[in-house]
Design a protein that fits this description.
The longest helix is centred in the C-terminal third of the chain and has 18 residues, at 149-166. The protein has helices spanning 38-43, 64-74, 90-99, 115-125, 149-166; strands at 32-33, 48-49, 53-58, 81-85, 107-110, 129-133, 169-175. By secondary structure, it is an alpha/beta fold. The N and C termini lie far apart (50 Å). Strand 6, helix 5 and strand 7 (169-175) form a beta-alpha-beta unit. The protein contains 5 helices and 7 strands. The strands form 2 sheets. It has a 5-stranded parallel β-sheet. The radius of gyration is 19 Å and the shape is globular.
């Protein structure tokens, strides 16, 4: 069923977006991926969904990075898992992983927070899950300083778009100070 709309003529260079009627959309459930934690799955409505971005936030030292490493270890996906860290270098993350007895060989660590490099790496390598630890450390050319409100907004919008375009699950760590 197609709805007809009157079009108003305006002098705009913006592209008109494609739309679909809610009644025309398939209503089958999206595939959800078990995080390995019953409570995380419950909070996320049954598990992680491809193309989604999930914010994990709290005060520094609360265990956000530890929890995400454990999720990376337990999640049942075949694609690689990319862990981008601006807080710690890869050796520090590996030490935590050893302490937690993380055994998933499908986890790849990056000590890089350049948003353009992150976007290009995800587009080229097609991981199933991406962790950004933390959003306050991601660097965008458009904004001058990391941790600024404009930088956090810009980086989050770009990561949300990346999740949708690449159909990848993304976790973002945010520090509450």
């Amino acid at each position: 069923q197609t709805a007809e709309f009157r079009t108003k003529k305006k002098n705009s260079t913006a592209k008109v977006l494609e739309m679909s009627c809610i009644n025309d959309e398939e209503s089958e459930d999206s595939t959800r991926f078990d995080s390995g934690f019953v409570e995380i799955n419950r909070v996320l409505g049954g598990g992680l969904v491809e193309g989604g971005l999930t914010l994990i936030c709290g005060e520094p030292g609360m265990g956000k990075s530890t929890l995400l490493l454990q999720i990376c270890d337990r999640i049942k996906i075949t694609e690689p898992i990319f862990y981008f860290s601006g807080e710690e270098n890869t050796k520090q993350i590996k030490l935590r992983a050893n302490r937690l007895k993380i055994t998933n060989e499908n986890i790849f660590l990056f000590s890089n927070t350049n948003i353009e490099a992150i976007e290009e790496t995800v587009k080229q390598k097609s991981p199933g899950l991406v962790v950004i630890d933390s959003i306050q450390t991601v660097q965008c050319k458009e904004t001058a300083f990391t941790s600024s409100i404009s930088q956090v907004k810009e980086a989050t919008v770009r990561l949300m778009q990346l999740a949708k375009e690449q159909n990848v699950m993304i976790f973002v760590v945010g520090h509450v100070n």
